[in-house]
């Protein structure tokens, strides 16, 4: 049974490992409410360290790890589940991200999740909707990051459309303003590149429409403050202000001369690229003005974390939608889930399945193991694994989806043991979860609410013993044959199954 975040975790934290900056927010929870008590942020520019082969260089890694060592002092003592660490575009892009993530996890003592662009968009909108004054109708939220930009149209606390584009102030700086020179030609190139990116989403955004536009990034905040400093707004970004600011940049000609109100010294180098992207957004979406919200990804992560402990876990809702979309037999899924968790509880200690996510992942896999049947019966476990790994599943990190997909892939026929070991250091435990899922599915091979016998499981390192009531197997020859065949499949991964 889950407990409320206010009861289980009086202190929670979120870390946003962004492409430009790393941010941390520490909050105290009480009666379901949250109060921010600490905010930290450092410019790291991971995205600047990604080379043409999509490798993150050692200098960028070191900047990130040094930053995390400073953050870690505030969160190392917090229990598992009270801290969520998310990586965004730079870590999505870096092919050697696993090397960085292993070191980062050792420093902060919590798991690092790399989230998809659309999941990032969902969390950004959640952060804005909880921290920005409510308004009637739909709202457009834009976040210009270091490596990607997110666009969301939502209403209330629900995001209706989420998009992520491969353009950001750090990556565009590397492409167009690497030496710090600002010319109309270079600015035009950056602007045009942004407009080309926006072409793929602008129709969908406009079709939904919105009543107000809100920006949720340091770039948008800096632009608004610079325009305010010129007396052209109250801190909002306006079309008129963008034009004035662009002309000002051309006149100065170099990033080192950008001594404007609202633009911090460490933001000067990436400011022209951010401005070009923002102007392209204004023109593509025909915006007149955009307000700024202090709430963004990290606040969204905190509110999502609280929701997970108040029976409002977006992941449960996501899986329900997935099951509905692919016409899963929900009664059968519930039977398999119940049996899998019953089996889990019997062997969890023997198999060191002692973390909350072990039980949670098994339950999820039981619910969605048949999604591939809607594609075709032949190899449906492979179809299901593909759908789960490559769909946008709000609330799930990339690693969540990969592990869930692997359990679905391995729930019948051959278990791809090597893939389990390659995916995670917990490959052995994932394999054990897969064995438990297969057991539950075999147990309910005959569909329907028939009376199920009691059973007793005992487990060794590479062994599972299943004991049924005396004489029951003889009276149920199909189940007996199923388990005999299952023992043969498990032998292929050097695993012994005995049934009696």
Query: Over all CA atoms, what is the radius of gyration?
Result: 26 Å
Approximate shape: elongated
Percent helix range: 40-55%
Strand content bin: 15-25%
Query: Helix/strand-derived class?
Result: alpha/beta
Strand segment tally:
14
| Mean pLDDT across residues | 89
| Distance between the ends | 32 Å
Largest sheet properties: 6 strands, mixed
Helical segment tally? Answer: 21
Strand order of the largest sheet: 8-7-6-9-11-10
What low-confidence regions span 5 or more consecutive residues with pLDDT below 50?
Answer: 1-7
Task: Please explain how this structure is put together.
The protein has 21 helices and 14 strands. Helices cover 49% and strands 16% of the residues. The longest helix is centred in the N-terminal third of the chain and has 18 residues, at 58-75. A hairpin with a 2-residue loop joins strand 7 (149-155) and strand 8 (158-165). The protein is elongated, with a radius of gyration of 26 Å. The protein has a 6-stranded mixed sheet, sandwiched between helices. The chain has a 5-stranded mixed sheet with strand order 3-2-1-4-5, with helices on both faces. The protein has 500 residues and is of the alpha/beta class.
Q: Quick recap of the structure?
A:
By secondary structure, the chain is of the alpha/beta class.
């Amino acid at each position: 049974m889950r407990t409320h975040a206010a009861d289980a975790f009086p202190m929670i934290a979120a870390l946003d490992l962004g492409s430009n900056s790393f941010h941390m927010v520490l909050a105290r929870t009480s009666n379901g409410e949250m109060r921010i008590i600490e905010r930290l942020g450092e410019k790291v520019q991971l995205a600047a360290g990604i080379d043409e082969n999509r490798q993150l260089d050692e200098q960028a890694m070191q900047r990130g790890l040094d930053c995390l060592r400073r953050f870690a002092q505030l969160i190392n003592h917090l229990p598992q589940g009270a801290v969520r660490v998310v990586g965004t575009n730079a870590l999505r892009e870096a092919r050697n991200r696993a090397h960085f993530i292993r070191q980062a996890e050792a420093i902060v003592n919590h798991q690092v999740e790399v989230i998809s662009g659309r999941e990032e968009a969902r969390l950004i909108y959640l952060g804005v909707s909880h921290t920005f004054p409510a308004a009637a109708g739909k709202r457009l939220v834009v976040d210009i990051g270091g490596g990607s930009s997110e666009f969301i149209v939502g209403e209330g606390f629900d995001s209706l459309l989420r998009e992520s584009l491969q353009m950001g102030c750090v990556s565009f700086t590397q492409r167009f303003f690497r030496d710090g020179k600002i010319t109309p030609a270079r600015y035009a190139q950056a602007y045009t590149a942004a407009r080309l990116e926006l072409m793929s989403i602008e129709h969908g955004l406009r079709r939904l429409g919105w009543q107000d536009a809100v920006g949720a990034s340091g770039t948008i905040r800096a632009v608004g403050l610079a325009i305010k400093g010129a007396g052209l707004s109250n801190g909002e970004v306006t079309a008129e202000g963008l034009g004035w600011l662009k002309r000002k940049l051309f006149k100065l000609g170099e990033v080192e001369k950008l001594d404007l109100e609202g633009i911090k010294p460490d933001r000067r180098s990436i400011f022209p690229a951010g401005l070009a992207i923002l102007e392209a957004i204004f023109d593509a979406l025909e915006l007149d003005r955009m307000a700024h919200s202090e709430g963004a990804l990290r606040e969204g992560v905190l509110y999502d974390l609280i929701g997970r402990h108040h029976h409002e876990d977006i992941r449960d809702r996501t899986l329900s939608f997935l099951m509905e979309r692919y016409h899963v037999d929900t009664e059968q899924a519930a039977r398999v889930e119940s049996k899998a968790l019953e089996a889990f509880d019997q062997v969890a200690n023997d198999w060191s399945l002692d973390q909350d996510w072990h039980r949670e992942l098994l339950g999820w896999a039981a619910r969605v193991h048949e999604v591939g049947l809607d594609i075709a019966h032949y190899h449906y476990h492979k179809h299901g694994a593909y759908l789960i790994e490559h769909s946008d599943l709000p609330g799930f990190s990339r690693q969540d989806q990969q592990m869930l997909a692997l359990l679905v892939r391995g729930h019948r026929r051959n278990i791809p043991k090597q893939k389990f070991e390659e995916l995670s250091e917990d490959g052995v435990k994932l394999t054990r979860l897969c064995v438990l899922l297969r057991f539950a599915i075999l147990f309910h091979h005959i569909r329907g609410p028939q009376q199920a016998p009691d059973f007793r499981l005992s487990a060794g390192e590479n062994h599972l013993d299943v004991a049924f009531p005396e004489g029951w197997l003889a009276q149920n020859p199909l189940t007996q044959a199923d388990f005999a065949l299952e023992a043969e499949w498990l032998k292929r991964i050097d695993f012994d199954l005995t049934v009696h």
